Automatic annotation (TrEMBL):
UniProt keyword annotations, A-Z: Membrane, Repeat, Transmembrane, Transmembrane helix, Transport
Native organism taxonomy: Bacteria, Bacillati, Bacillota, Clostridia, Eubacteriales
One GO cellular component term: plasma membrane
Subcellular location: Membrane
Identification of the protein by name: Membrane transport protein
Organism (species): Clostridium estertheticum
Length: 427
């Protein structure tokens, strides 16, 4: 390992410890880590603070303002009342219904859709919960459900990457059955449901501070009375922002600007004032997300990712059990995809290594390709990537509370993914 790699690792570990002990305000540790990365010469200022000009962060910040405006409409008021009614009928039933609804909705957007999890967590953050359905019980379960379509019909991105990594490794097994690949996704989603049902017990039974009065009782519902034309304009701004995010792959960078223009519109018509806009686009979750992107980019630029992959491959050797090989590379891919913030890039580094090893053992490499590609979107036990950072920030979980849910989730999902891949695509 080089000196920059060692320094980068030490700074990253220090950042995680600061997040864990909760001694600094939420969002501050990644900024401190970025400063240290520059001071110690691990990376330059542009890379360390590049997260603040990252297209996804700009989109997220703008969308936070749009959601704040949407909170003042009758639509969200009605949605709040539905959630409250569900809670009054039974907290656990409401909990199940919420994350199942999210999983059904995610079937439209596909695995790992940034637009979808921003939309879902943004709306959930506006809802006031009762003691029967505390926010601590809901945010994590519903948030990570965004990553698991219950009807996996939109899997073209991951399917295409599976084909690409097989080709890159020189495999002759290029034709992969799309239906079988969808079944692997379905088993992964079912494993998440199984954990979410158990995980209800480990999630904290609390509402966060901004939904409570000083006496610990739920705050009174705030009723907004926007003129109809302002309300309808807010809906239009919200829909424009969502459509823009969905069409990003088709219209390019302009899609990231549409939420910003939508936020400007709700400012102009005075649904939100400038202070409200500023507070939302500069929220701690934005600082957290932007900061960790810089840390991730700095880690990747040191060459640590490639070094770890080669080291693990050489340690496993050519006599390793195929199941163990796939599972280890799933862990490696998911971990470093989270740390580096580059899911597809990390997959392209590690998947060919595992595929080549399988081929050298005379095994069908399709299971390895499918499992390792999907594992890139199933890290999440470290709050230093978009989805887990948003879940931890909006849910205001302490790191220990966050880990009680995410670490078992991490291993359950990867074991289920490896088993499903080996069963569906026999070695």
């Amino acid at each position: 390992m080089t000196i920059p790699m060692i320094i980068a690792l030490v700074i990253t570990v220090g950042m995680v410890i600061l997040i864990m002990i909760d001694k600094l305000p939420f969002g501050a540790p990644p900024i401190l880590a970025c400063l240290l990365m520059v001071i110690f010469g691990v990376t330059n200022i542009k890379t360390a603070f590049g997260g603040f000009s990252n297209a996804t962060i700009i989109m997220l910040a703008s969308f936070m303002a749009i959601v704040a405006a949407l909170e003042k409409t009758n639509l969200i008021g009605a949605f709040r009342r539905i959630v409250l009614n569900m809670a009054n009928k039974g907290g656990f039933k409401a909990y199940i219904m919420l994350f199942i609804i999210v999983m059904l909705a995610s079937s439209i957007f596909g695995t790992g859709s940034t637009a979808f999890y921003i939309l879902t967590l943004g709306i959930l953050s506006t809802i006031q919960y009762t003691d029967k359905l505390p926010r601590g019980k809901v945010i994590a379960a519903a948030g990570f459900a965004c990553n698991h379509p219950l009807i996996p019909i939109n899997v073209t991105l991951q399917y295409g990457i599976v084909i690409a990594v097989l080709e890159a490794a020189g495999s002759t097994v290029i034709k992969v059955n799309l239906v079988k690949f969808s079944i692997v996704n379905l088993i992964l989603s079912l494993a998440y449901i199984a954990w979410a049902l158990i995980g209800y017990k480990v999630l904290p039974n609390k509402n966060v501070d901004d939904t409570e009065n000083g006496d610990g009782k739920a705050a009174q519902e705030i009723v907004y009375d926007l003129p109809k034309w302002k309300e309808y304009t807010t809906y239009a701004a919200f829909l424009a922002a969502v459509v823009g995010m969905i069409l990003q792959s088709k219209i390019g960078d302009a899609a990231y600007m549409i939420p910003g223009l939508s936020a400007a519109l709700v400012l102009v018509i005075n649904v939100l004032n400038f202070d409200e806009i500023r507070n939302n686009i500069g929220a701690p979750i934005i600082l957290m997300s932007a900061g960790v992107i810089g840390v991730a980019d700095a880690l990747g630029s040191t060459g640590l990712t490639a070094l770890v992959g080669k080291t693990v491959a050489s340690m496993l050797g050519t006599n390793v059990n195929a199941f163990v090989l796939i599972f280890v590379f799933c862990m490696l891919t998911s971990l470093l995809a989270t740390l580096t913030g580059s899911t597809i890039g990390t997959v392209y580094v590690f998947a060919p290594m595992a595929i080549s090893t399988c081929m050298s053992l005379g095994l069908n490499p399709t299971a390895a390709a499918a499992a390792i590609v999907l594992s890139g979107w199933n890290g999440h036990f470290l709050p230093i990537d978009g989805l887990p950072a948003m879940v931890m920030g909006i849910g205001k979980y302490k790191l220990t509370e966050f880990w009680k849910y995410t670490i078992p989730m991490y291993f359950i999902r990867l074991i289920a993914l490896t088993v499903a891949s080996v069963l569906i695509f026999p070695l």
